[in-house]
Design a protein that fits this description.
This protein is α+β, with helices and mostly antiparallel strands.
């Protein structure tokens, strides 16, 4: 057995190690084993091919678990051609082969498993066997999906102990305590949002792919440097109107636990009705904007026209009613269907000129950035998905806290750059003072009115970003005013540091958790096999629809058997 170097007298730590070695040898050299005798003290096997004389015998040494090869007889005459569906390449063997790879890459696909096994051993195995091995391997490393739900109540208790002030709850349904919903918001996130972040909350969800599926709902914000700031997240058995109403109710409770008065908020989402209704009910004084990234991707997907996307963004950024109408008219010229489609989204929810709230320059949600944190972990049990976010939060808070401690500027780097760019442009402007607060700023292209009392400029950039625009910088510096004093507090380095001033403490190992109550997984589970895909046939799309014709009344739209003409006539006669 040249590749594995198995020889007479060779010793192995125990019978299990020997069995693994002989199995590896059989797979690598493409012959099938037929086990004659296998127990705790002896092992006898031969080649499964009829007439092949190869045979091996191993025994356990006295007073020790060690196994040794006693005899190795004959050479293979079978041709060693067991390459398709090798019997020794069992699911357990594949699990041992892929375990380390799975630890490094959760998304190690079955087709990659097939490729790697063929490359290393020269054998092919069924796709289904590789899929089962991956499922079993993930369970061996990360635990079962059922255990994940059972651990949730204990995990919530640990969060409350290690991170006092956090809001963590698990909700069940039915007499058998089936999982329904889970919500968590760390105290560090609540403190950072209320004391340093922009008062903007992005909402969204992402499907999980574990055995029992579910949806991860998230609420994120922006720090003063434009970074994603996770505020709260939860898992629901099903995303619908009720689940979003519940999620925003829990979010409101969490915020009210940490402050006496919730500040005026702006919400960003994909505009789905369930989110819009929940925001209106639970945060009635807030403003709700539609994510422009979602809107532009939708119009691009539906109409396949990059010109429409460009015009949509220009309409969104228009700073005058006239400019907005011009861009909308251009959209109508390019595609009347696109203009009709856009009517389902009121301009007051996405266009700058019509939006009542403040977005601080953020037209798009950052939920997509947050979802990347768990994109690779969606196949894992629910407790592992939550712990991934927990660990990532701990790392990010520490990293950003450390990084911001070295800043020497008054504002965050991105805000400071905006001021510096404004100073560069302002040096070429002419400033005329009208009164104590109003100025006319003249550039080569245009003239703008700046009002330092209302912190506004006719270009609208100051109102949009809440950072003085180049015209405002020109007006303020010409009369020796401090530009930083006219910048919203959210963009200061001090506010940024306050965002991450509290630590997200890790939870102890699950072995130290005490299980307080039993939570069963939801009844719904992922159907077996590959998910179905709806495929559209181009020929069917272009084909004219068949018109149904009735032979009784000569009308279209129904058959003879469903014709109601006789019924109507008899009713009239009666």
């Amino acid at each position: 057995m040249e590749d594995q170097n198995i020889f007479v007298g060779q010793e192995f730590p125990d019978v299990k190690a020997f069995r693994n070695a002989i199995k590896e040898a059989a797979i690598a050299q493409h012959f099938e084993l037929r086990i004659v005798k296998s127990d705790l003290i002896r092992y006898i096997a031969k080649c499964a091919s009829e007439g092949c004389p190869w045979r091996i015998r191993a025994i356990k040494l006295p007073n020790a678990p060690t196994f040794t090869v006693r005899s190795l007889e004959g050479t293979h005459t079978c041709g060693k051609n067991a390459q398709n569906g090798h019997h020794q390449a069992s699911v357990d063997w594949i699990v041992n082969f892929i375990e380390e790879r799975l630890r490094d890459n959760i998304n190690y696909k079955p087709k990659d498993i097939l490729h790697d096994i063929y490359k290393q051993y020269g054998i092919t195995i069924p796709y289904k066997q590789a899929w089962r091995a991956k499922e079993r391997g993930l369970q061996a490393i990360y635990g079962s999906s059922e255990e994940g739900y059972c651990l949730l109540p204990a995990y919530c208790e640990q969060i409350k102990k290690t991170n006092p002030g956090s809001h963590a709850e698990v909700f069940t349904a039915g007499s058998d305590s089936r999982f329904q919903r889970f919500f968590i918001s760390f105290y560090a996130s609540l403190h950072g949002f209320l004391n340093g972040c922009l008062p903007v909350i992005c909402l969204g969800g992402i499907q999980l792919k574990s055995k029992y599926l579910g949806t991860l709902l998230s609420a994120t914000s922006f720090d003063g440097d434009g970074g994603v700031f996770p505020l709260a997240f939860g898992v629901v058995d099903e995303e619908n109107d009720d689940s979003w109403m519940w999620f925003l109710l829990e979010l409101r409770k969490a915020l009210e636990m940490s402050t006496e008065k919730i500040p005026p908020l702006t919400f960003l989402s994909d505009g789905q009705k369930s989110i819009a209704d929940a925001v209106k009910r639970k945060f009635p004084s807030s403003c709700h904007a539609i994510c422009m990234q979602y809107l532009s991707e939708s119009i691009s997907s539906d109409f396949k026209n990059s010109r429409l996307v460009q015009l949509l963004w220009k309409a969104a950024y228009s700073t005058s009613t006239r400019g907005f109408k011009e861009k909308m008219a251009e959209i109508e010229e390019v595609s009347s269907d696109a203009a009709t489609w856009l009517q389902q989204y009121p301009p007051s929810h996405w266009a700058l000129i019509h939006f009542d709230g403040t977005r601080y320059g953020h037209f798009s949600s950052n939920i997509y950035e947050f979802n990347k944190w768990i994109l690779e972990a969606r196949e894992l049990p629910i407790i592992q998905v939550i712990k991934r976010i927990h660990c990532k939060l701990t790392e990010e808070f520490e990293l950003r806290r450390s990084r911001s401690s070295t800043w020497s500027s008054t504002l965050s780097p991105s805000a400071e750059k905006r001021i510096m760019d404004g100073r560069t442009h302002a040096s070429t402007y002419q400033v005329l003072r009208s009164d104590e607060v109003e100025f006319e700023v003249i550039s080569a292209e245009r003239s703008d009115i700046v009002n330092t009392g209302t912190r506004s400029c006719s270009c609208r950039d100051w109102q949009l970003y809440r950072i003085p625009c180049s015209h405002a910088v020109a007006a303020l510096t010409s009369y020796k005013k401090d530009v930083y004093a006219f910048t919203d507090k959210y963009f200061t380095a001090a506010s940024y540091r306050e965002c991450y001033s509290k630590e997200v403490h890790p939870s102890p190992d699950k072995l130290e958790w005490s299980r307080t109550r039993l939570v069963r997984p939801p009844k719904f589970r992922r159907p077996p096999g590959r998910p179905e895909k709806k495929r559209l046939c181009v020929e069917d799309l272009n084909r004219e629809k068949h018109t149904v014709h009735c032979s009784k009344c000569n009308q279209t739209g129904h058959y003879k058997t469903t014709c109601k003409t006789e019924v109507v006539q008899s009713t009239q006669q009666f």
